[in-house]
Amino acid sequence: MLRKYFPILEWGAAYDRDTLTDDLIAAVIVTIMLIPQSLAYALLAGLPAEVGLYASIAPLVIYAVFGTSRALAVGPVAVASLMTAAAAGQLAAQGTPEYYTAAILMAFLSGLMLTAMGFLRLGFLANFLSHPVISGFITASGLIIAASQLRHILGVEAHGHTLVDILATLFAHLGDINLPTLAIGVFATGFLFWSRSRLKPLLNRLGITGKLAGVLTRTGPVFAVAATTLATWALALDESGVAVVGAVPQGLPGLTVPSFDVQLWAQIAVPALLISIVGYVETISVAQTLAAKRRQRVDPDQELVALGASNLGSAVSGGFPVTGGFSRSVVNFDAGARTPAAGAYTAAGIALATMFLTPLLFFLPKATLAATIIVAVLSLIDLPALKRTWDYSRMDFAAMAATILVTLAFGVEMGIIAGVGLSIGLHLYRTSKPHVAVVGQVPGTEHFRNIDRHDVVTLPEVFSVRVDESLYFPNARFLEDLVADAVASEPRIRHVVLMCPAVNHVDASALESLEAINARLRDADVTLHLSEVKGPVMDRLARSHFLDELTGEVYLTQYDALHALAPKLAEETLGAARKLDACRTTRGT
Amino acid sequence: MLRKYFPILEWGAAYDRDTLTDDLIAAVIVTIMLIPQSLAYALLAGLPAEVGLYASIAPLVIYAVFGTSRALAVGPVAVASLMTAAAAGQLAAQGTPEYYTAAILMAFLSGLMLTAMGFLRLGFLANFLSHPVISGFITASGLIIAASQLRHILGVEAHGHTLVDILATLFAHLGDINLPTLAIGVFATGFLFWSRSRLKPLLNRLGITGKLAGVLTRTGPVFAVAATTLATWALALDESGVAVVGAVPQGLPGLTVPSFDVQLWAQIAVPALLISIVGYVETISVAQTLAAKRRQRVDPDQELVALGASNLGSAVSGGFPVTGGFSRSVVNFDAGARTPAAGAYTAAGIALATMFLTPLLFFLPKATLAATIIVAVLSLIDLPALKRTWDYSRMDFAAMAATILVTLAFGVEMGIIAGVGLSIGLHLYRTSKPHVAVVGQVPGTEHFRNIDRHDVVTLPEVFSVRVDESLYFPNARFLEDLVADAVASEPRIRHVVLMCPAVNHVDASALESLEAINARLRDADVTLHLSEVKGPVMDRLARSHFLDELTGEVYLTQYDALHALAPKLAEETLGAARKLDACRTTRGT
């Protein structure tokens, strides 16, 4: 029990010197990568640079205690930072203490929600975010983030939380472009793109190969930061209008008490819930992908607790919402991290940076940070997914496209809500009109197939239909209509057989419909039968009065049903001597 | 095409003298029954008595033109009247012109929505109202209606749209009971209950049997109205505080132009949508039940158009929302109505009453109308349904109980919204944790069954699992977890076979999960196979890259899968000479 909630007890017991070495090496590499990222995502969230560092200390230590993934690296990430900015921006202006308070409260509430969901085993809530919705949402968020960072590259004013607002204000200020800023921004962006694709081949040619080359490639942002900071300092570019990070407080964060303003909690609740679910979905996907590579297990409910505790830790140490990030986790994994302790060592590295390196950040241009954000988020934008989804399913495409458009036009919260609502609605619509097949017997076999697809024999007195869907409220009436139409249009029908091999569930609405169908057919002197009912469905039906009232029988197989009904028909309508084979007629001929 | 939208063209062409006679007889009986009902439901809706009559003229004629049910009788009904009162009561005080305007607009907007839903074939929207929700909603509405009418029986003040409000205000005014009113109310209620259960046996003993006795039993309210009106007039009880209907305008309604106030439309929109859906569900259930008795067809989409047009007709002739009523339709059917023309003749009867009989209604006590409402709605209250639903499904019970409680505590609109939301949520929750079975081979057969229920053989190298649910976003991650856990906990697993005979659909989220599972298993050197994939699912998978990337095969049957994998395993892990039978091991022994 204790080990379930404190996975550190399990891996900690087997911790040895070799593991320590591996974890330490990974931690050094991740620390170097995380410093510019943390600063950049704080900028994206509209917060002071040091807040990004704060969010990369306590959460990592806490995740090391509670997390079940061996390689996950938590910290500030792009999408969560954008969502924080959108939520806090609705309550206060960037740069005000109220704005910072709101960001801290986002982390705190999100932490409470995630922890509660973990204890209550509500992780399934994250499932409501279907893949097309999350994919569309991340693509749209990436576009919004990239657009929002253009102002730092150009050195102009721009604001807003939707693509339309951002681009409109950006174009209005295009005349104010600051050329030194633009030069830094273009250089940093270009260098980062170059280092992504060309640095590794170059290192390979220089004899640096394998994992080391991969890890070095990831440190491109550090070089960009160093080079542009030096240039700004040397050329005093800050005096020419280049926006710099400026004075960053030195030292570890103090203990923060989150706001307990009830009204503020009410305003933050929905954004906090959305950021929790989006953050969790990213976290659990990354964790499972990495765990599978080493056949390790991840406990989805415990991950909720761990991510929740990390966010609570972030909130009480002056940080903002954190998530398990994809790229940093992959770096951590590739660099050889073997336990969550690597995250704790990374936290120590960031803490050291906070204590000693912040003076070096004074001349760091915001344009460089914006460039690292743009290059990072452009990899999130997955437009080919639109094509793939279109090819696979028009409904899923509709959910994805709607999520993208609503997010771009109305912001992140509306985008997610619209996407989730639409994907649930489309699912219900699809199952409300299930695939049904009128079936007949494949001659010479005991198999029954769709009369539209196969050459089968049917009896005009027996209407056999297979429904390829669970029977539940969205399609309950559909079944009533189907049977009513069939019986009304063919006066010879004396028996209806519902073939149920694909019916995984019959809910109370469908039970009521079956009872109505049975009663209506009885009024019309038609008998209702079932066949191939699954065990769990049959168990449940036995708890109702339906089986007592059923005018016909429940047959194990459709063949049994026809075999039993045909002789009766023979007696009743075709004379006693005729047998099943003799009374087969082919529908449609 | 014309006949589809004007069913009158079809049955009208075959109309003859016999049909006319039958329809006329039914119309006379329904007219007599409908007059007190119409007055009572207008009272329930908080509207002047004549509005009930107006709502029983134009809508009936219009339904006769557009309706596909031969026996449905539209007009004011209890639940729709309560919903009208709740919606209009939020906008204006009863008795004000604004209140009446809101009620007319409810009918108009509901008519527009229903007609549009009919043309757009959106009838499936009504399916979202699951049976437990509609049943719970009607029970709760019945309780609220009965409680709200108690004030007329007692002659005291009471108001509110929730059970709590109504009972609280009622108790506060209990000291004001008017004894003559109470006497009339108790007499009328008692007589109506008596006539429901005892009148028919009495008539039978008097030699009146069969349908005539049944129809006469239904006219109890007319006797109650006549007796109490006469008594009130003769004893001048109105001067002793008995509330009477009073002066009712004589003559046919004029043409009403509904309000085009945009703000009012916005406020009425949600209640109008809810009343549309609730009314449609009742209408289509009644229509299908009656149609089935004569093997007739009802077109659900055309019924939307017909009900919508009826409501538009009600709105422009000063009426309020109408619905196909259960009890009056049964009376119409039992009285021998053969075509919708019976409804038109009923309308003519009500129109005559409006022109000539309204002066007789002056001394009609409101207590009598309240008694007819109470007796009518108590039959709607179906508490045994709670027990039945509990026995059948705890989840459906939860949706029903929540609908009842929220309706009683927060009113009809919140009740429906909560019920629909909860039933959708519970459905998603249920399918998010589908029934899965790890399967093994039944010895000596080609069948594969749950290893927990049957004595089957399995191979430690092959993990075969059957998911009894469509794969879609709420359970996509569940499948990932399931496979990841299995593979992590049994290092010998080399092959995973997903058995899919119950998978009716694979959406884009589940496809993504299958791709992730495939990739993760590949990283762990495990091969993924599918078996028994349905045709439509296979067609769709073929439109993605999944089948190209799949590390294993898609087998027609689970037996084929094992047959193909076992020799490989034999070669790889057990030596080339061993065969399938030899390498069978029984799991759990």
Q: What overall geometry of chain A do the principal axes of the alpha carbons give? A: elongated
Rounded radius of gyration of chain A (Å): 31 Å
Summarize the biggest pleated sheet of chain A.
6 strands, mixed
**Number of DSSP helices of chain A?**
26
Low-confidence stretches of chain A: 573-589
The oligomeric status of these chains comes to homodimer
Average pLDDT rating of chain A: 87
Arrangement of strands in the largest sheet of chain A: 4-3-5-6-7-8
- Which class of secondary structure composition applies to the elements of chain A? mainly alpha
Helix residue percentage of chain A: 55-70%
- What pair of chains forms the biggest interface? A-B, 79 and 79 residues
Count of distinct structural domains of chain A? 2
* Proportion in β-strands of chain A: 5-15%
- Counting DSSP E segments of at least 2 residues, the number of strands of chain A comes to 8
**CA distance, first residue to last residue of chain A:** 68 Å
Task: Describe the protein in words.
Two copies of one chain form a homodimer. The first copy, chain A, is mostly helical and 589 residues long. Chain A folds into two domains: 2-424, no CATH class; 436-583, Transcription Regulator spoIIAA (2-Layer Sandwich), CATH 3.30.750. Chain A has helices spanning 2-5, 8-13, 17-44, 49-54, 58-66, 78-89, 97-119, 131-154, 163-172, 179-205, 210-218, 220-235, 262-293, 300-316, 326-334, 341-356, 366-378, 384-392, 394-410, 412-432, 473-489, 508-523, 535-541, 546-549, 558-574, 580-583, and strands at 74-75, 323-324, 436-441, 448-450, 462-467, 495-499, 527-531, 554-555. In chain A, strands 4-3-5-6-7-8 form a six-stranded mixed sheet. The longest helix of chain A has 32 residues, at 262-293. The radius of gyration of chain A is 31 Å and the shape is elongated. Chain A starts with a helix and ends in a 6-residue tail after the last helix. Chains A and B meet through helix 13, helix 18, helix 19, helix 20 and helix 21 of A and helix 14, helix 19, helix 20, helix 21 and helix 22 of B.
